Amino acid sequence: MSPQGEETRLAYTAQGLLSGIFRQDERRLGIEYDHHNRPETLTDVMGREHHTEYSGHDLPVKMRGPGGQSVRLQWQQHHKLSGLERAETGAEGFRYDRHGNLLAYTDGNGVVWTMEYGPFDLPVARTDGEGHRWQYRYDKDTLQLTEVINPQGESYRYILDNCGRVTEERDWGGVVWRYRYDADGLCTARVNGLEETILYSRDAAGRLAEVITPEGKTQYAYDKSGRLTGIFSPDGTSQRTGYDERGRVNVTTQGRRAIEYHYPDEHTVIRCILPPEDERDRHPDESLLKTTYRYNAAGELTEVILPGDETLTFSRDEAGREVLRHSNRGFACEQGWNAAGQPVSQRAGFFPEETTWGGLLPSLVREYRYDSAGNVSAVTSREDYGRETRREYRLDRNGQVTAVTASGTGLGYGEGDESYGYDSCGYLKAQSAGRHRISEETDQYAGGHRLKQAGNTQYDYDAAGRMVSRTRHRDGYRPETERFRWDSRDQLTGYCSAQGEQWEYRHDASGRRTEKRCDRKKIRFTYLWDGDSIAEIREYRDDKLYSVRHLVFNGFELISQQFSRVRQAHPSVAPQWVTRTNHAVSDLTGRPLMLFNSEGKTVWRPGQTSLWGLALSLPADTGYPDPRGEWDPEADPGLLYAGQWQDAESGLCYNRFRYYEPETGMYLVSDPLGLQGGEQTYRYVPNPLGYIDPLGLAKTSVPAEKISLSDKARDLFRQGKVREALDVHYEDLVRRKLGGISQEIAGREYDVVTDKIIAQVKRTYSSIDNPKNFLSKSTRTQIKKTIELAEEQGKEAQFWFKYGVSPKVREYIESKGGKVILGMGN
Fold it and tell me: Is 647 helix (H, G, I), strand (E, B) or coil?
């Protein structure tokens, strides 16, 4: 029984094996066993069945999921996975040394990646599919990672103190960050290459209380339960968060703005956006923007009710994949999937009859093809007026696109074939797209892969590794220089164009951009956030509200938008606010392909871009007339890839924690996560067809629509607590994989409890870089209690680590009888 009165009941077989989990009289999980008492069928809360077949050694050899998904597994004599066969893809292989370390992985295309190991089974080298070798070095006492050497011989280093804490971090190009700690091992200061210092102070509970930067002091407030309730910025603005009796976020305030959340039942969330108090008489609806989200028992979106009562309904197949999205006013989008769970088709347009798909009149038909390793190999798109294009993609052995072959009647001026080359570290070194030749194979990077030259454009950086100027050279013209200004937290605060046009940017304490303005143009945009998605954009001209753009997302995929502004049909008619509702259809990367009105008519599509997002044609350059008069250039939501907001003034994309330049496929600053975000700290993603980076921190291969979160993780996102939300999401994934629940036993909370396992989930970096601090008295007690309870109940004690674990921590856990599992245990 939870403190909120929610009851969880467990059912068991006659042999004492867990057979069901029930919550609020609803079965959350059902388990059936074979005659050897092995889990044979798992039934989730939606009734979807997952079947497993076993070998004579009790190892799973075939797994079948709903919707035709299946996986065959092969095992070597020491019970290590040696082969994997998925539907629609080629066979994958795994090879190990005598210690059980993975030596080689072979993907579905037959490409081999290899690993080398040194003392204590620590990885010392990795060779990618193209034969490029990365090396790793460790501290001889603590065995912590201290250096990574890339194929070009550049090093990323960590300097440790006597306690094993990182005191200095030096990137590939020599940019240095220094750290200081208190007696408890908590970081108290960070100093960048410009000697800009950020100071951190904590309260008696170890929670962050103040952050002091050269720009001022930011303070944090908490309630008695330890939940964050307020963040107060140096500029006088604040963020506040309120909670209901079940601990769910029910209100957030951002400056003068507020969003309320209501939960009428377990599967419904109502979001209410309140207009600024001094603008409520000028608001387009003269009321709040109320959006209702309904989810099924598995947490999958099933319905959205927009302001104005337009309803979008989402239908899913037996595997939970979206197959139909349709509005009660005519718009519809159908999606098809293959047996591997990959999207293979999209059809969107007008759906006059709800009884049969024969009634769909598509304005967009899109088909996807994949190679044996699951990479996108071809995309065919057919649009209104006979516009048809086909793009085929050729990849290297690292899965990076080297050529795009374009054909069809839909190609516009400036569009055509594309070609790309990469250096040994995976960065672009040559690219051409259509009539654009951006860069040749020349020495275009300075140390650490900071851009030095790309075509006729020159780049300069400061001592903190941030781009500060971009100069374009054209024959017969003076150089044109654009300048960028940054604060101590690597947030862009100012941009000056080559013509002297100044833009200013403001951010909240969570690093989210809340405003951009240009005084010369007398234009200003404000941004209201729902977690890490923008919920509303307001545009002001001459200090008067000009337009309001209301945005609705599912994860990082745009579903719908409502654009409102004052319009005057005739000089004799008084101006009035007019709202237009549009629905988005996006590609695999979350980029909107088209916007449709409520009746399913096309109102906007983006111009064609290169693989990395460089504009090759303008959105208005459709090449075809619009006899219906429905085309609306103001409908452009301003999105490139998932989480990327285009800035017309600079040509850059705001990507939450960083800024992205589509022309070069590069970020302007190094990854805030350092190597934790990937070894290429300035690059976007290895392949923009198969990966996204919606936060500007780390790539993910999960399609934008499939980024689903638990209620707790979703609430953390709404507070702007990104890493905490991703950590909670990891805990959810572990719990889902093991098929267990969190449970309090004898006054102690255990993260995952099943019939065979008791597990604790660790989401801290100190398990890697500060084992002494990690193995505190309380942590050692938790480990011992977990192992003792597991032994009493005849179960296995597992400790899951999201980021990794030092040999010292692993040795301690295993010496007590526990088992260490890294990542998702794959």
Answer: coil
Using the 8-state DSSP alphabet, how is residue 807 labeled? H
pTM, rounded to two decimals: 0.84
SS3 399: coil
- What's the CA angle centered on 666, arms 663 and 669, to 5 degrees? 130
Handedness of CA 43, 44, 47, 51 (dihedral sign): negative
453-454 and 450-451 strand pairing: unpaired
Query: Which secondary structure element, helix H or strand E, spans residue 712, and what is its range?
Result: helix 711-718
Q: Mind spelling out the 3-state secondary structure of 175-199?
A: CEEEEEECCCCCEEEEECCCCCEEE
Tokens for 630? 């429905």
Q: 720 pLDDT band (50/70/90 cuts)? A: very low
Burial class (CB in 10 A: 0-12, 13-18, 19+), 201: middle
**57, 75 in Cβ contact below 8 A?**
yes
Averaged pLDDT, 106-110: 95
Within 8 A by CB and 6+ apart from 156, the residues are: 147, 148, 150, 170, 171, 172, 674, 675, 679, 681
* The pLDDT value given to residue 357: 45
Supply φ then ψ for residue 506, to 5 degrees.
-125, 150
Joined together, the tokens standing for residue 248 give 């769910």
Mean per-residue pLDDT, 322-340: 93
Which of 9-23, 259-273, 782-796 has the largest mean confidence?
Answer: 259-273
Helix (H) or strand (E) holding 113: strand 112-117
Q: Residue 46: CB partners within 8 Å, gap ≥ 6?
A: 296, 297, 298, 320
Q: What is the DSSP string of 120-188?
A: GG-EEEEE-TTS-EEEEEE-TTT--EEEEE-TTS-EEEEEE-TTS-EEEEE-TT--EEEEEE-TTS-EE
Q: What are the start-end ranges of the E strands in 434-575?
A: 436-439, 445-446, 450-451, 453-454, 457-461, 467-472, 480-486, 492-496, 502-507, 513-518, 523-530, 533-541, 544-554, 557-567
Distance set, CA 758 to CA 54, 59, 730, 763 (Å): 23, 21, 17, 17
For residue 730, which of 763, 699, 758 has the smallest C-alpha distance? 763
What is the DSSP code string of 280-341?
A: TTTSTTSS-EEEEEEE-TTS-EEEEE-TTS-EEEEEE-TTS-EEEEEETTSEEEEEEE-TTS
Buried b vs exposed e over 632-660: b needs ≥16 C-beta within 10 Å? Answer: beebbbbbbbbbbbbbebbebbbbbbbbb
Q: In this structure, what are the phi and psi dihedrals at residue 753, rounded to the nearest 5 degrees?
A: -130, 125
Mean pLDDT of the chain: 88
Spatial neighbors of 783 by CB under 8 A, at least 6 apart, are: 760, 799, 812, 813, 816, 818
The residue type of 301 is L
- Give the pLDDT score at 383: 87
Quickly list DSSP for 582-637.
Answer: EEEEE-TTS-EEEEEETTS-EEE-PPPB-TT--BSS-TT--SS--TT----GGG--
Pairing of strands 819-822, 576-586: unpaired
Please state, in angstroms and rounded to a whole number, the distance separating the CA atoms of residues 607 and 412: 9
Percent of the chain exceeding pLDDT 90 equals 63
Q: What's residue 769's pLDDT?
A: 63
Which residues, 6+ apart, have CB-to-CB distance to 627 below 8 Å? none
Structure tokens at 80: 């290590």
**How large is the angle between the packed helices 711-718 and 722-738, nearest 10 degrees?**
170
Q: What is the pLDDT of residues 24-50, one digit of tens each?
A: 767 778 999 999 999 999 998 899 999
Q: Is the pLDDT of residue 264 over 90?
A: yes
Distances (CA, A) of 818 to 768, 771, 783, 785: 18, 17, 8, 11
At 353, list the tokens: 């009859």
Number of residues that make up the chain: 826
Instruction: Convert the pLDDT of each residue in 406-437 to its tens digit.
Output: 999 877 766 789 999 999 999 999 898 877 76
